[in-house]
Amino acid sequence: MTFVSLGPMLPTVEISVDFANDPTSSTRTWVDVTPYVREFATGRGRRDALSRIDTGTLALTLQNQDGRFDPTNTTGPYYPNVLPMRRIRVLAQWDGVTYNVFHGFVEDWTLSFPDMGKNALVYVTAVDALAILPSFDLVGQSYAAQLSSARGSAVCDTCGFLSTDLAINTGQSTLVASGTIAADSDALSHLLDIQASENGLLFADAGGTLVFQGRHYRAQNKSASAGTIGTGAGLIGYQDIRTSYGVSDMFTAVSVTANGGTAETATDAAGTASYFKRSLTWLTGGSYLVSSQSETLNAAQHVLGLYSAPALRVPEVAVVGAGGTANWATILGFDVSSRATIAHVTPAGGTITGDKHVEGIGHRVTFERDWETALQLSDAPSQAVWIVGDASNSLAGQTTVAGY
Fold it and tell me: What does the alpha-carbon distance between residue 170 and residue 118 come to, in Å, rounded to a whole number?
């Protein structure tokens, strides 16, 4: 690998394409295209903890003066393999450590000839592994009643994912048997229903691995902050921070309907009196795959507990590392579910503090100029979640709050 410098106080990067192999091949032959890159931007994750996950994306601008990225150029070094769905990756390096930034599949090679034809550019768009899941129709498949994580593994196995391409964390919810699945039932839709039924998370990480996290994952694995974002010596600097304090993320009545059963509704009378009734129906447009009425009620109560009162939230922050290079390792290490601390002092002397979980992450990089990272955030519990049988998360009412 050959990493290219972006400028002083910025990480080096390496961007490669596997022109030679079909995306379904287990073989990788990476070709370095970094010298031709002018800028790139990535985005993965979701807007907030109540949203479904979005397909990860990469937008890349390449210089193409010699026509090497022109799919019709028969003398080009990559001809005839400048094709859609070829694998592409972005790596970064800081202080000798290599970090994944994006791994996915090229959707389009768009040729552009600006400046009255005197220049030649190629705009590459790429997507991560979530984008290929809708192409797998589960028609005729039948899955037994099983844990959410086991169902996720089974669906991925149906799609032909290798075990090395998966990271499945144990779920908590037992899902109903699927029966024989009808036509036009794609793998992504079913996996997202599994995610919502578990109250967990499904995403493709920066290295291209398809990740499933059960609802206990963050409590058990992300209880410590990876770094602090704020204004002060040694903190991760930022370009912009914004807050919300309103009713857009408030719900005083949450309803969840058990699979094959009835609706369970959790309500907050005090919240309704102060802010009117604000209703959320969990999994509108999807399928809730849990039949247990008690667990269904627990799910409604859990969501209500997180969103029944107004809170000063920090939905997004744009961080920069160039002002304090010791922070690049933390910034490049952030991924979905990472935990970070906000410690902002306002001009009036007030403070905005608290731990957050990363729900989405995006990088915008211009060569020899700057690197900006935007984080979409949700509030992390101020106390750990109580989990029966877990030695570090089982002191109910002392160091923990109720979970399910």
Answer: 56
